[in-house]
Amino acid sequence: MIELPGGFSAHVANIGIKDETDDLVVIAADAAVPTAAVFTTSRFAGPSVTLSREHVANRSAQAVVVISKNSNVATGPDGIADASEVATTVAERLGCDPTDIVVTSTGVIGRRYPMDRVRAGLQAIPQPLPRRDADGPARGMMTTDTVVKLAEATLPGGARIVGMAKGVGMIEPNMATHISLLFTDAAIASDELDATFRRVVDRTFNCVSIDTDTSTSDSSIVMASGIAGPVDAAQFEAALYAVAVDLTKQIARDGEGANSLIEVHVDGAINPAQAKRVAKAIVNSPLVKTAVHGGDPNWGRVAMAIGKCSDHADDQLIDQTAVTIRFGTNEVYPRLLDDDALAALSGYMSGTDVLIHVSVGLGESESTVWGCDLSDTYVRFNADYTT
């Protein structure tokens, strides 16, 4: 069992939104603490996102609420009022200001919260919050996830970072995608926490893609109670990155219907933005994803994905004669393999972890992104999602 860092406690319950699984999570500090958050850029962002964006504008919060299995998105003024009521009621139970509450929601779009059940569930929040474990809250966030997603790191001196996430589909961050919550007992100023978190998010949660679809409810939040005292800034960022990249890989590995985690590493780019564009073009290609699913070492699909990067001036400098493509450590272009050698790569391509390494040959920048294969299970699951 993983415990929350010092200064945080939790409550998890089923309030009857769906079935009998837990669907309400509240994690709170004893008072408002430094908080950083990044949200979806979707033009259909839900009320939870718009409300929480306002509440964390001062980079401070006391608690985060997760309502799972109902996103309360595209529900008009009533949905906005419902999200506001959630924040107000939780604040009353915790004895803080509603603006200190961050609300997140995940689930089917276009359906309001069942407010009679939500009200009863929120009124039953105990005080003080009874739980210290992270496992229960991580499980309570789940919707179609098949596994609990948790990660932790300990800094020199004993300060800890614990992260949890949910998300298996509708994932292509523009920031972020999914819901991820990170908590630390390190003492760090709010401005520094915000800057550090945004750098980490850009290299982790913003580098995962399951299906190229940006969620309307994406939220990524970090809170720092400070009770473990000051920490070295570089060590803190490294530990925060370690937790976030662990969660990122867990999300990609648990993609709906996925059998393989795909890691795409692009180096030799003119700048980091180009490296990420090329990597995303590869990991998002349905043809690349289906090739991995079928164990087909068809490097031509990777070449195709690289070649379609042409919207930016930097990308127009890509020269196919300077590009190198590898599956794992095996070069497949420009050193062409014969049919027997390619066939020998089939086992690697159908494995649980597949690395596609591309060198562009233009500069010194690099980027790594993560995704998964595309299976008929994904198609079937999403074809039947609400029916």
Anisotropy-based shape: globular
State the end-to-end distance. 36 Å
Strand content: 15-25%
Largest sheet: 8 strands, mixed
Low-confidence runs: none
Fourth-level CATH superfamily of the largest domain: L-amino peptidase D-ALA esterase/amidase
Count of alpha/pi helices: 12
CATH architecture of the largest domain: 4-Layer Sandwich
Count of beta strands = 13
Describe the structure concisely.
This protein is of the alpha+beta class and 387 residues long.
Any overview of this molecule?
- Helix content is about 30%, strand content about 25%.
- It is built from twelve helices and 13 strands.
- The protein is globular, with a radius of gyration of 22 Å.
- It has helices spanning about 45-55, 75-95, 115-125, 135-140, 190-205, 235-255, 270-285, 285-295, 300-305, 340-345, 345-350, 375-385; strands at about 10-15, 25-40, 60-70, 100-105, 150-155, 160-165, 180-185, 220-225, 260-270, 325, 330-335, 355-360, 365-370.
- By secondary structure, the chain is of the alpha+beta class.
- A hairpin with a 2-residue loop joins strand 10 and strand 11.
- It folds into two domains: about 10-255, L-amino peptidase D-ALA esterase/amidase (4-Layer Sandwich); about 260-385, Roll (Ubiquitin-like (UB roll)).
